[in-house]
Write a structure and sequence with these properties.
It contains 18 helices and 2 strands. By secondary structure, it is an all-alpha fold. It has one domain (about 1-435). Strand 1 and strand 2 (about 50-55) form a beta hairpin. Keywords: Electron transport, Membrane, Mitochondrion, NAD, Respiratory chain, Translocase, Transmembrane, Transmembrane helix, Transport, Ubiquinone. It catalyses: a ubiquinone + NADH + 5 H(+)(in) = a ubiquinol + NAD(+) + 4 H(+)(out). It is found in: Mitochondrion membrane.
Length: about 450
């Protein structure tokens, strides 16, 4: 594990040499190939060195981190082309990858907390330094305070666990802890990082104001830190979780449906994709908290699949923004006529986003639906709505942005929802007009 870390550290001087932007990207490709051929295909920890190691859970997420950082550099070619402080941008991307690599490969709970929080700093610099609008300062403050407010109780909980067990190694955290306050302090930071509905407001703000690289690493990797943390601390909290998981699963599923409705009313490309991430992470959270084999493996698969799919959608939204100068769906419609080859990528990634076969998302969602319904059959209603509206807003995004003239043909099942909303809006407007007319007559009399 240390050889990968040293490779990443020795790339830092290359950031300050002239015209080595693509060299760093190619070296990151090389890192990913070296890591692929390292053998971690067992559930046990392997390649252990000092404080680092890797099991199958770490393996996929480290590989995802390297891939997303390589694609970030590819999507941010405009920063290099315009000479917009690309040396510092490259440095921040490398630091972000190093912190994520350390987060996923450490075997100690305190070091996990340390790198978990450190990975927030490069993302904050990306939003503050290369964001598009002055509102990025407010988005950075939202991101910082939401995460710090939830993470400080986690630090106290880690210290308490050390005082009880005198060690913090993941592979030895098997003792159940029956303290409700400790359970809340351990899990709340991960719920905010996922993010769970009600504590999700920082995510759309950060996505909308972030550059394409910030959006890709937020959606691709940083949202997965919460799920990874829950899967790691689950042996400690499983007894208390049997009592409290009802609340989190209920909030997540109901929130996922409500966020899907919000997606149907979005006109901003990045905002729609950001809210769809909240809806997908709600299923991941519900599946992980069922503590079944189906749920945990499904959550792991969907985290990796969503990381690739969502970061790709943000990349496509940025390409449209650079060409058209706007992220509005009203302006970016009928793009099939202008960029037909990009429409294929829109179609493929939208299909993955709605979990169409044969995508990896489908495998993850089938496992999660199986685990959540077997855990409680009442959840079937919310899961059905969630799956339906997930397809609806993804088709809305694809059809409106690519082929707006035939949108209603491709959305025949979605048209009923829109028409009913239209009827409700017309009814409300007519009532307002009648009241306005009555008030005018009253004034005239």
């Amino acid at each position: 594990m240390l050889k990968i870390l040293f490779m990443l550290l020795f790339m830092i001087p290359l950031c300050f040499l002239k015209n080595l932007y693509w060299m760093v990207q190619n070296l990151l490709f090389l890192v990913s190939f070296i890591f692929i051929f390292m053998n971690f295909y067992s559930n046990n920890w392997g390649s252990i060195s000092y404080f680092m190691g890797c099991d199958i859970l770490s393996y996929g997420l480290i590989l995802l981190s390297v891939w997303v950082c390589v694609l970030m550099l590819m999507a941010s070619e405009g920063i290099y082309r315009k000479k917009n402080y690309w040396n510092f941008f490259l440095l921040i991307v490398l630091f972000s990858l190093i912190f994520l690599y350390l987060t996923f490969s450490t075997m100690n709970l305190f070091l996990f907390y340390l790198f978990f929080e450190s990975s927030l700093i490069p993302t904050l610099f990306l939003i503050m330094g290369w964001g598009y609008q002055p509102e990025r300062l407010q988005a950075g403050v939202y991101l910082l305070f939401y995460t710090l407010f939830a993470s400080l109780p986690l630090l106290v909980g880690v210290f308490y666990i050390y005082s009880e067990m005198m060690q913090l190694e993941f592979m030895m955290l098997s003792k159940d802890i029956f303290s409700v306050m400790l359970y809340l302090s351990l899990i709340f930071a991960f719920l905010v990082k996922m993010p769970m509905f009600l504590v999700h407001l920082w995510l759309p703000k950060a996505h909308v104001e972030a550059p394409v690289s910030g959006s890709m690493i937020l959606a691709g990797v940083l949202l997965k830190l919460g799920g990874y943390g829950i899967l790691r601390v689950m042996p400690l909290i499983q007894e208390v979780n049997n009592t409290f998981s009802w609340y989190w699963v209920s909030i997540s599923l109901v929130g996922g449906v409500l966020v899907s409705f919000i997606c149907l009313r979005q006109t901003d490309l990045k905002s729609l994709i950001a809210y769809s991430s909240v809806a997908h992470m709600s299923i991941v959270l519900s599946g992980a908290l069922t503590m079944t084999s189906w749920g945990m493996s499904g959550a792991y698969v969907l985290m990796i699949a969503h990381g690739l799919c969502s970061s790709g959608l943000f990349c496509l939204a940025n390409i449209s923004y650079e060409r058209m100068g706007s992220r509005s769906l009203f302006i970016n419609k009928g793009m099939l006529n202008f960029m037909p080859s990009m429409a294929l990528w829109w179609f493929l990634l939208s299909s993955c986003n709605m979990a169409a076969p044969p995508s990896l998302n489908l495998l993850g969602e089938i496992s999660l639906l199986n685990s959540i319904v077997s855990w409680s059959w009442i959840s079937m209603f919310m899961l059905a709505l969630l799956s339906f509206f997930s397809a609806a807003y993804t088709l809305y995004l694809y059809s409106y942005s690519q082929r707006w003239l035939v949108m209603f043909w491709s959305l025949f099942f979605y048209s009923g929802i829109k028409s009913s909303m239209f009827i409700v809006n017309i009814t409300l407007i007519s009532f307002k007009f009648i009241n306005f007319k009555k008030s005018c007559l009253y004034v005239m009399n």
